[in-house]
Amino acid sequence: xxxxxxxxxxxxxxxxxxxxxxxxxxxxxxxxxxxxxxxxxxxxxxxxxxxxxxxxxxxxxxxxxxxxxxxxxxxxxxxxxxxxxxxxxxxxxxxxxxxxxxxxxxxxxxxxxxxxxxxxxxxxxxxxxxxxxxxxxxxxxxxxxxxxxxxxxxxxxxxxxxxxxxxxxxxxxxxxxxxxxxxxxxxxxxxxxxxxxxxxxxxxxxxxxxxxxxxxxxxxxxxxxxxxxxxxxxxxxxxxxxxxxxxxxxxxxxxxxxxxxxx
Length: 263
Prior knowledge:
Layout: E1 2-3, E2 6-14, E3 24-30, E4 41-47, E5 53-58, E6 67-78, H1 89-105, H2 116-125, H3 132-159, H4 167-190, H5 215-221, H6 232-243
Antiparallel strand pairs: 1-2, 2-6, 3-4, 5-6
Helix pairs in contact: 1-4, 2-4, 3-4, 4-5, 4-6
């Protein structure tokens, strides 16, 4: 709701990374209920120290709470903190999301960087754990991880001359799938010791450290990779429609005003 040069916002956001540390946050709010879906959304920058902003820890399967719930109750945001035009927030948000997906799925890594590194070291250092089946699976995942790494390098070179596009969705998809498959393989390779977990203490960490923790942590934490930064199901649609040019799924509510949607 707009009150002169100020917007008054109420709402709740689940799964906000590092909200307990952030001074500023992205806020995408419905400001016009009389237009359909993605229209009528406005993009703001929210001061997390403002009155009415409450951050609550959201404990994960790892035992930690790097994510949070954020509750907004009558938060007053000056119009000077609006980014883009009122009602044009979805277009601005798409740029943000494209950048986020490239950052998650296309980070620069050396060969055997990321999740494939620890399991490859275990394979070399612990020959007594090897089996033929695990060997074949490791070879397949090693090649896929290297292909993803080189694809990310090529994508970053393309981005030097322009803005991140929907191709980042493909990198994010590959990142999530590989992390989950590689961490599952590592737990199987280690056997009973792969089920151990170093620390269930409720903490609110500043960083996510995949390679500095044990196999149990990597296995549990990687489950969130297919949710954060856009779910894998949503990203599959983006790749299909915006990269491959396939027809979109039928949507009967495409032109229905947001206020008239069934809830």
